[in-house]
Amino acid sequence: MKPFQILPLCLLALAACSDPEKIARYPIDPPTAEKAVPNRLGRAELREVSMPQYATAQEIAFQTADGALRSNPDNLWADDPARAFTLSLARQISALSGATVISEPWPLADPPARRVEVRIEQMLPGADGQLHVAGVYFVTPAGYEGGRDVVRRFDFTVPIADQEPGTIAKAQSAAVTVLARRIAQLD
């Protein structure tokens, strides 16, 4: 066989290995919340949420019984995890409190009164059946109008029935709502 005849066969074999129907994408998409807490933030800009590398990777990570974090290249997040978490968090805080919380950059003519920064130190779908979420958030005045700085640590869990990617995505969506409520209440 001549080299130029082998190339199409190699390309065909490579295409057969990457079956797009095997790859599943899962969104972080909590249900829209109803107003439940007073508006303590007003107009606030939410900086992109900082997350550990394993939580920002495109593949959905999970912990196995041996303590290792593993993932499968066939199970991916539908969007960049930090971007999706940030947008969902801003939407949930706004819905829960009536505040105007928008992810950076601020698109409106009138500037925000506050800035919110969230640093997630742990977003771990544990082998123990819990999604472990821990970190800190900061709420600061955005300009020279004054106000006080707020610094709050958070550490909570959300139950997960199994290590399936869809279950992990639902648990992360629930975690957005839990964290949004804490930030909206400045708790």
TrEMBL record:
Residues 28-184 form the ABC-type transport auxiliary lipoprotein component domain. SUPFAM superfamilies: XCC0632-like. It comes from the Bacteria. This is ABC-type transport auxiliary lipoprotein component domain-containing protein.
